Amino acid sequence: xxxxxxxxxxxxxxxxxxxxxxxxxxxxxxxxxxxxxxxxxxxxxxxxxxxxxxxxxxxxxxxxxxxxxxxxxxxxxxxxxxxxxxxxxxxxxxxxxxxxxxxxxxxxxxxxxxxxxxxxxxxxxxxxxxxxxxxxxxxxxxxxxxxxxxxxxxxxxxxxxxxxxxxxxxxxxxxxxxxxxxxxxxxxxxxxxxxxxxxxxxxxxxxxxxxxxxxxxxxxxxxxxxxxxxxxxxxxxxxxxxxxxxxxxxxxxxxxxxxxxxxxxxxxxxxxxxxxxxxxxxxxxxxxxxxxxxxxxxxxxxxxxxxxxxxxxxxxxx
Length: 318
Ligand SMILES: C[S@@+](CC[C@H](N)C(=O)[O-])C[C@H]1O[C@@H](n2cnc3c(N)ncnc32)[C@H](O)[C@@H]1O
Description:
The protein is α/β, with parallel strands linked by helices. The chain has 9 helices and 14 strands. The chain has helices at residues 15-24, 40-45, 73-88, 157-169, 185-192, 206-217, 236-242, 256-265, 286-295; strands at 2-11, 31-33, 60-68, 97-105, 119-121, 124-128, 141-145, 175-179, 197-202, 225-229, 247-253, 270-282, 299-307, 310-317. Helix 1 (15-24) packs across helix 3, helix 4 (157-169) packs parallel to helix 5 and helix 8 (256-265) runs parallel beside helix 9. It is globular. The structure holds S-adenosylmethionine. S-adenosylmethionine is lined by residues 151-152, 156, 159, 162, 179-182, 185-186, 201-204, 207, 231-233, 253-254, 258, 280.
């Protein structure tokens, strides 16, 4: 589909009002660029570990919106200008300049698919559901994934670190808890490796649909992978649902700060001798994660593995 991009230069204080005005006239999904640093809460909510260095905020913001070619652009821009006139009465709109850029061909939801190609993690072939199996990989253990809008194609280093640890940890009796399951890639790989059953949690509701679809794509029955939206860190309902003292392996590929909190929650869910495989840890936070494990007498760290700038820590419950 063809889209035209318009960028309004305005003030940071006007951004919320402008976005709401655009929404009122049927323009959804605006893009905002400014130099206002994210709050700690925003950073956590977006699962970002390292923030870019920003120049000082000078109160200027750019609000971009996309309009598809089918719309009457002249009429729409008239409505935008009228909306801005109304806002100008009670807020400073700054420059209020609108720039139109070249028409682009964008499919926001599906654009990433062109970068997701079949790849291997040792003897496992991870393949988008829509691609065919490459001839040279026909002998590999096949995992098919369409993450949809959930996280987890398997291409990220942290997912691959977890998969390599799962290969060592999983056997035919394994009951696995997959915290932050996303597309379900880790749980599904564990099932393909022979695990008996998986329980997965995620904060993201999209994970529920993604896991269901990916189980189907892999020919795995739904009663082997149970999934729940919620936070095992602070929701007694989720903790109860997952169950206590019953897992051979827990895997969590999230972020160092979340792993540090999980170090105190996971022991109650693991069997004695069970393994906690963690990743999502950027190398500069490796020591903080190791310190958290060292502080908890329930765990002994067995192995630390690394790929690129990412780290995985595997610990055993004593
Ligand atoms: C990096 S993705 C990992 C997805 C997938 N497991 C993989 O390895 O590719 C992290 C996921 O953890 C989820 N998440 C973050 N904090 C969580 C928490 N406290 N409990 C459950 N899920 C969480 C996010 O929504 C996201 O889907």
